[in-house]
Amino acid sequence: MKILCVFAHPDDESFSSGGTIAKYVKSGAVVKLISATKGEKGSVGQPPLCTQAELGAVREKELTCAAEILGISEIFFLDYIDGQLEQISVEKISQKIRFILDKEKPDIVITFNKEGNSRHPDHKQINKAATLAFSHYIKTQTKHVRLYYADTPKSLLRKLEEIGTIYTAFGKIEGTADSQITTIIDVSETIEQKVKAFQCHKTQHKDWERFLKRKNLPEFRNEYFTLISEKKLL
User: For the whole model, what pTM was predicted?
Assistant: First the structure.
């Protein structure tokens, strides 16, 4: 099985689906990653671990570290600038993604949900571009291919609100109705790999430190996905 994840920044892979990636790699899957940017506009850490000008190169190394831990075999950077994806047409971004889809021929594609999982504008633009790219890709395939959105059920969001660990920098996250979540992956066996992958992203430590406050929730050991599009074998 070949899985291709399509995200916007270094660390998106670990937060959204790190446990699932590691689990499927252990089962023999080949997982590759598209990162639209190198996260140049993110945090440099507190205290600073680099200058803002150095951040893109630093986060590329952090992503390489996380990818090695999760078992991601290749990273494709689209070389867009963090925070500027809204200024690029969905069609243009999707063409770059489609080129990689056509070359790699994955069985499964994973990307953000429509909210971008955090309402980050870059995330939402990648959702649109990846979905459009897959809509073209699926027409060319004669094998079973699927598009999944990494998702958050509303019931989990309510619990996260109670313990104050929701990322709200870009507004309130609505989540997805529990009844619409199609796939729940138990990542108990790979959760420590996921945590170690988080910790590679040293400049973004505030984000994963907040995320780790969820560890006592049973749901922390699950990752959630919604099947969006599928072409079955005839």
Answer: 0.96
